[in-house]
Amino acid sequence: MNFEERFDWKLCFILCMFITISCVALYSAQQSPQYNENFMLKQLVWFGVGGVIIGIMLYFEPDFYKKISWPLYIAGLVVLLALVVAPASIAPVVKGQKSWFILPGLGSIQPSEFMKVFTILILANVISNHHEKVRSVTIKDDFILLGKIVGLTALPLVLIMQQPDLGTALVFLAIMAGMTLISGVSWKIITPIFGSIAVAGVGIIWLAIKFPQLLDQYLGVKQYQLGRIYAWLNPQQYGSSEGFQLIRAMRSIGSGQMYGKGLGERELYLPEAHTDFIFSIIGEEYGFIGSCVVLLAFFLFIYRLTTIATRANHKFSTYVMVGLICMVAFHVFQNIGMSIQLLPITGIPLPYISYGGSSLLAFLIAIGLAFSVSYHHRTFMFGEN
């Protein structure tokens, strides 16, 4: 087949939808008096850089990414470790987090964003290799595989929590959970483990609400550190502090009603409007209809990734696609959920739409992997090659 037949035009169309939505939303966000930068133009530059990277990635088969998964993973860990020990001159603390390197002439770079993709690659590598070597699966083999998955996820997770960056850490947990579910590990092992984690999570939230002093006494969690949970449950009470952004975000979305106020007609001031709360801008200016268009774009995207995953010829490719689906789906659910009080605010961006060089570039690399898997898909008469 030639290029036109092998290239995934459906995925390209969805990416073009994201580019359009992002540019329109950022154009609106940058009209606010709080900004004096052209975020839309910078975003287009990053889309252009990402487009070149996708074009390069397209011509490498998935086996190539499997081969380089270990070097990428180890390099990512080294950079995360360097970030922890780096001086403030090149890794400043911003809003209580030490998550970025400052590169002269290039701006800031957030290593954890790229580490998400590297972790997906290494987990897909380890899971696929495990099943190639182990034909007759036992409970012991399942525990060994589960240990590998948890261990490889825990290493970057520990370094990211040193920053600290809870939102990004939750993304790693979502990736690990999703890839564990399709790894072939017995449900007799998964069910009690996941059940225990869910009960523990609910229990910690309950303790934070009812008995915060116990968390301080036994886990060292101070009451002020639980501010986002309290603001999530009762934003009006914390309207001048942690609950300010949430209240503004909900008012922005609600004021858009069905059809929105129109392009550039935004009235409410909203901090971080171009990054974490870009969905609120869309809700205010384009209303329920515009918000549904965004949700539809993400539905089509995840559906397309799922289609690519189910028809992939190699298990490694399937596992990579599942990891990407988990990463994107969690980002979307968490970002939109925190804008409508469905979930606590964690500060993670809306994929392909929020402004941000590192985040956008990492997600474009992720879609580059999807393009590669789709482009190199082959149909064999007698099944897998």
From TrEMBL:
It is a multi-pass membrane protein. InterPro entries: FtsW/RodA. One of its GO terms (molecular function) is lipid-linked peptidoglycan transporter activity. Signal peptide: none annotated. GO terms for biological process: cell division; regulation of cell shape. It is found in: Membrane. The chain crosses the membrane at residues 12-29, 41-60, 72-94, 143-160, 166-182, 189-209, 286-306, 318-340, 352-373. The keyword Membrane applies. One of its GO terms (cellular component) is plasma membrane. Keywords: Cell shape, Membrane, Transmembrane, Transmembrane helix. PANTHER family: CELL CYCLE PROTEIN, PEPTIDOGLYCAN GLYCOSYLTRANSFERASE MRDB. This is Rod shape-determining protein RodA.
